[in-house]
Amino acid sequence: MTIDEVLAHIRAGLNLEAETEHELLEEIRTHLEEAVEEAHNRGLDEEAALTQAAVRFGVAEAAQELQATHIGWGTLEGVAAAALPVLFALVLRWTVFAPDGTATGWQELLSRPTLWAVAAIALLAPLLRFPRRRYALISWAVFWGLSVLIITSHAVSW
Amino acid sequence: MITNTRGTAQQGKGAARRIDQMRKGTTTLAVLKLLADSGEPMHGYQIIQELESRSQGHFRFKEGLIYPRLHQMEKEGLLKSHWEGEPGTRRRKVYTITDKGRRQLEAEMRQWETFSQGMSALLGFEQAGP
To answer: How far apart are the CA of A136 and the nearest CA of chain B, in angstroms?
Structure first.
């Protein structure tokens, strides 16, 4: 048995974002290395030291608790981050587009500072607020792509 | 005889569960106190070793369970963490107590003191005052 194999067992019990899993496993690797080193210094051979470290760590229990601790964050943050572009879409709808619901001209839109201000805030807010910024970026990209498509296609009501 | 053995085993499991619940309930307080006393960043393994040492072995549990607790405390703003060590060397994620953590520690210590005094009085452990 190796530390990598112990980490693989823990990883098998996790179903989190790759970045989160990587950080968790790196922290656990350090722990196991310390524990093995200490057991080794007490006279245990490499195999016995690692076995003892793995047993004392509680691979299955730790994986279960870590999963439970971290799973909720991503979901909530993802929803919160994805909600931002929706909110800003509504703001754009009220502040940029014409009250009658038609898309204004592309040139006119570009000249409106409100559009740029809202766009900049919408783009930067998720970056500052949420570790899971990719949700916000993807949502923002989808929203923005759709907006541009609609704006550039003439005589389309938004 | 079989019934007695089973009864003893169940009592043992019940006691272990109660101790586990007590430990879970006090881990936050123990970690906050340790980090506040230490005044220096500590990594997970170090925290476990210190908890076990300071509690004279009573605070012993599956070591991996300290990490979900630390991460939860960090999420609650009681702790903050950063990585120490250069890439390529052994890197350690270390934790320090935050101002919010210190306030929580003070509050929990007061609660603990009141609770333990009450329980001691109830169980007849309270020593006579001067």
So the answer is: 20
The answer to the question of residue A65 being in a domain is: no
Query: What is residue B97's predicted lDDT score, i.e. its pLDDT?
Result: 96
Q: For residue range B93-115, what is the model confidence (pLDDT) as tens digits?
A: 999 999 999 999 999 999 989 98
pLDDT more than 90, % of chain A: 25
Whole domain around residue A21: which residue ranges? 3-57
Interface subset of B 99-118, CB within 8 angstroms of A: none
Asked whether residue A48 falls in the same domain as residue A11, the answer is yes
Same domain? A93 vs A141: yes
Give all domains of chain B, ordered by start, each with its CATH number. 22-123 (1.10.10.10)
Residues of B in contact with A57 (CB under 8 A): 62-64
CB contact under 8 A, A66 and B67: yes
How far is the C-alpha of A100 from the C-alpha of A7, rounded, in Å? 59
CB B60 within 8 A of CB B52: yes
CB under 8 Å to A68, separation ≥6 — which residues? B68
Torsion of CA B111, B115, B116, B119, to 10 degrees: 180
Count structural domains, chain A.
2
Nearest by CB to B45, which of A26, A31, A58? A31
